[in-house]
Amino acid sequence: MQTPGAFSRSTSASSADAATADMSGFVDGQADGLRHLCALFDRWLGHAVELPAAALVVAEMVVLFTGIVFRYGLGHPLVWTDELASILFLWLCMLGAVVAQRRGGHMRLTAIVNRLPDHWRTRLETLAAVIAALFVLEIILPAVEYATDEWMITTPALGIPDTWRAAAILVGAVLMLAVALLQMAQRASLRDLGFCLPIIVACAAGLWIAQPALEAMGNWNLLVFFGVLVSVLVLTGTPIAFAFGVGAMSYLGLMTEMPMSIVVSRMDEGMSTLVLLAVPLFIFLGLLIEMTGLAALLVNLMAALVGHLRGGLSYVLVGAMYLVSGISGSKAADMAAIAPVLLPEMARRGKPSGEMIGLLSSSAAMAETIPPSIVLITVGSVTGVSIAGLFSGGLLPAALGALGLVLVAYVRSRGEDVGDAKRASGREIGRAFIAAVPALILPLLIRWAVVSGIATATEVSTIGVVYTLLVSLLISRHLDLKRMVPLLVDTAALSGAILIILGTATAMAWALTQSGFSHDLAATMAAMPGGAGGFLALSIVVFAILGSVLEGIPAIVLFGPLLFPVAGELGINLVHYAIVVVLSMSLGLFTPPFGIGFYQACAIGRVTPDKAVHACWPYMAALLVATIIVAAVPWLALPGF
Question: What is the spatial distance between Cα 51 and Cα 516, in angstroms, rounded to a whole number?
Fold first, then answer.
């Protein structure tokens, strides 16, 4: 029988449990309410950023096409179009980066994180989110300082303070910080934050305490900041742009007396180069030819010719990348145009998803020298090499790389099931060719507009857009206006994700320049034994690494002016050397674990990187062999063949 005292104690315990349960329920309710409120703010912020970003894409196209019309159509050039386009472009870069941040679209390495248990994966994702938030928080005050300093500079044509342009970095950083905090409030637990914050504080304190020892190491401390720190951040899933930014700020803050506004200045320089305006415009052109069906017409023609063969769709992918690269100078746009058309049918035939991404990524690397390549344009602009010569010299090397990829695809497709594949008749091939004529005209139109001088490599994409819209309205009638705004937002997001990497990579490259590392590297390469052959061999290795770490354009901007004169002194034709350099950088750019292009291919194909890592290697080996052949046979890369 229960005693009165026991009954009293039981009642008290029950009351305490009930109170605890009520308190827990109250806390959970408050947390749910906070998450709901943050979700509402996040949704509102998304609309507030996405629509202006989409409008900026349209504005850029209108401004550039207006410049073409007035310059060549009316004979009255507008001197302010490039200046206005440059101002709008930086805003597009930063708002696009905000959209990418909200969508989780920033490129990151997930191969290691995805192999961990759920609780560790959640912690590392929280850690990556906190590091991204800390980086954009760190650049806010330097961005204020930079924008303030730019008030003294007046734009020559429009006559307005350059602060109107520079303020884009400040606004973008504030918005990215807001997005990061809202997303952490919705997804991160206090336990995960409690795990991450002490690690970050301990690492920061360790670097600060080790500052004297790091200074005593000389340039070897670059391995700590750009080798160890950046690598650890990338491998643990931190978005690559923010990993580069953290590495650059950590090095400059601890090892130099430079103000942090220099990081913002270098980011501005990396993102604001007018030639890079071709990136969002060609991305939009690539998405547009996919939406209007022009890319599908090209693919259908090639599929009618070889699609019935074992491995035929792999050959179609390689050939389509070669052709579409003559329309778009952006490899991300090329992949975005081709992947939705081909990958579903390849998957239906049993092709593993990783294999498809490996071929897509390597095909994009192969096409890096096909005009109008943005990298080739950059090479010409910073080294003085003839862009027309580069455009002519890049075609045969790309064809050689395509042949290597086809051979690998043939070997790896021997077990493919083509039992349901039907061989097209001559009549079907003829219909496919007639239907594809408007699409076949587009790359010829783009090349003619650039070579004839009607449009610059940046402006020519607007001609492609206008032509595609006219064809879709008057001939194919496949223009879906309801998809236009989402297409513009996707363009802004993908452009922002790419261009902010260029910005932070440029800041990191500038830090390497200040350390003297780039000059030391040039001197070392010039002293290599073997003359021109040894220099070319070392250049392949160095630029493959630089393409992986710095991405193509920052690597060219940093090392091109240093190494191209050395190549000239050794008697190497500069067009030949440029093609070898671009092919080498493409190897690093599209090869895991650091190649940015590889992650673009994974994002476009909607396949996790860990599924595609191993499938890349045979294809990239074929491209390496092609690069070596091009280096050994200069005739392949010389204009006028």
Answer: 44
CA distance 620 to 16: 66
Cα–Cα distances (Å) from 466 to 15, 470, 471, 492, in that order, read 74, 6, 9, 19
Q: What is the pLDDT of residue 111?
A: 65
> CA 562, CA 551: separation in Å to the nearest integer?
17
| DSSP sequence for 452-511 | TTSS-TTTHHHHHHHHHHHHIIIII----GGGHHHHHHHHHHHHHHHHHHHHHHHHHHHH
**φ/ψ of residue 161, rounded to 5:** -60, 140
Whole-angstrom CA distances from 532 to 258, 567, 568, 625 are 38, 7, 10, 19
469-472's contacts with Cβ under 8 Å and 24+ in sequence apart are: 469/288, 469/292, 471/292, 471/294, 471/438, 472/292, 472/293, 472/294
Residue 352 is encoded by which pair of tokens?
Answer: 């593993």
Q: Which residues contact 15 (CB under 8 A, 6 or more apart)?
A: none
Tokens of 311: 């491995």
Structure-token match 């179609």, residue found? 316
pLDDT at 148: 92
Close Cβ partners of 496 (under 8 Å, ≥ 6 residues apart): 53, 92, 93, 94, 95, 96, 97, 98, 99, 100
pLDDT greater at residue 51 or residue 550: 51
Count of residues in the chain: 641
Whole-model pTM? 0.78
Q: How far apart are CA 634 and CA 641, in angstroms?
A: 11
Statement: residue 308 has pLDDT above 80? no
Mean pLDDT, range 484-513, rounded to an integer = 85
Tell me what pLDDT residue 21 has: 46
Residue with tokens 């599929």, as numbered in its chain: 303
Interval 315-334 mean pLDDT: 75
Write the DSSP symbol of residue 154.
B
Helical H segments across 325-416, by residue range: 331-348, 353-366, 374-383, 387-393, 395-412
pLDDT tens digits, one per residue of 569-601: 888 999 999 999 999 998 988 887 777 778 778
Give Cα separations from 157 to 54, 76, 85 (angstroms). Answer: 26, 15, 12
593: preceding bond cis by omega (within 30 degrees):
yes
Q: What is the mean pLDDT of the chain?
A: 82
- CA angle 375–384–453, rounded 5-degree value: 75
3-state secondary structure of 638: coil
Q: Which of 590, 522, 512, 597 is nearest to 560 (CA)?
A: 522
Tell me the residue type at 74. Answer: L
The yes-or-no verdict on residue 12 having pLDDT over 60 is no
CA 98, 610, 242 angle in degrees (round to 5)? Answer: 30
**Helix/strand number for the chain, H first, E second:** 28, 0
Q: Confidence band (pLDDT; 50, 70, 90) for 27?
A: very low
Residue 54's Cβ-count burial label (10 Å; 0-12, 13-18, 19+) is buried
Residue for token pair 């997303």: 183
pLDDT of residue 441: 87
Name the band, by pLDDT with cuts 50, 70 and 90, for residue 553: low
Question: What's the pLDDT score for residue 10?
Answer: 47
Adjacent-strand bridge partners of 154: 161
C-alpha–C-alpha distance, residues 317 and 92, integer Å:
31
Q: 89 with 274: CB under 8 angstroms? A: yes
